[in-house]
UniProtKB/TrEMBL annotation:
Function: Troponin I is the inhibitory subunit of troponin, the thin filament regulatory complex which confers calcium-sensitivity to striated muscle actomyosin ATPase activity.
Gene Ontology terms for molecular function: actin binding; troponin T binding
GO BP annotations, alphabetical order: cardiac muscle contraction; positive regulation of DNA-templated transcription; skeletal muscle contraction
Keywords from the named record: Acetylation, Actin-binding, Coiled coil, Muscle protein
Assembly behavior: Binds to actin and tropomyosin.
Stated family: Belongs to the troponin I family.
Entry coiled-coil feature ranges: 18-106
GO cellular component: nucleus; troponin complex
Protein name: Troponin I, fast skeletal muscle
InterPro entries per record: Troponin, Troponin_I, Troponin_sf
Organism, as annotated: Vombatus ursinus
């Protein structure tokens, strides 16, 4: 076990040494990155912001202020125009997304409960207190008389089927069948 403990300690010492070396390398890389950013910032400012020379007289200072205000106004107008374009395009996107959503039909329908209502209750719910008519649907139906058709008369005349079978059985029954056919 002593040998194995030495081995584990060596491995952990090696890991710690590697970690410290990696941290040192990372720290130097971060410093290099920071100096590079500062030099890029200085280059950008020297290109886009020339050094300011302040004039000596009051009229020249006022002219300089007017020029700066004009530039600020132009920048503000440009900013406002861009914001309006962004708002307009955002609204168009929302409208199109809503149309897509509607076309796909993926909107959730609320779960509806089935309610049993009579016709009177429905009219009362729709019309409110104006509802005076009572809708008894069966009262408005027509009365229809059935006319006797030939088939019904024949069936009524035939009567009991057992009686017919007894009459047609035997030789006399067959004789009657032939007589009725001719």
């Amino acid at each position: 076990m002593g040998d194995e403990e030495k081995r584990n300690r060596a491995i952990t010492a090696r890991r710690q040494h590697l970690k410290s070396v990696m941290l040192q390398i990372a720290a130097t890389e971060l410093e290099k990155e920071e100096t590079r950013r500062q030099s890029e910032k200085a280059n950008y400012l020297s290109e886009h912001c020339p050094p300011l020379h302040l004039p000596g007289s009051m009229s020249e200072v006022q002219d300089l202020c007017r020029q700066l205000h004009a530039k600020v106004d132009a920048a503000e107008e440009e900013k406002y125009d861009m914001e309006m374009k962004v708002q307009k395009s955002t609204k168009e996107l929302e409208d199109m997304n809503q149309k897509l959503f509607d076309l796909r039909g993926k909107f959730k329908r609320p779960p509806l409960r089935r309610v049993r209502m009579s016709a009177d209750a429905m009219l009362k719910a729709l019309l409110g207190s104006k509802h005076k008519v009572c809708m008894d649907l069966r009262a408005n139906l027509k009365q229809v008389k059935k006319e006797d058709t030939e088939k019904e008369r024949d069936l009524r005349d035939v009567g009991d089927w057992r009686k017919n079978i007894e009459e047609k059985s035997g030789m006399e029954g067959r004789k009657k069948m032939f007589e009725t056919e001719s």
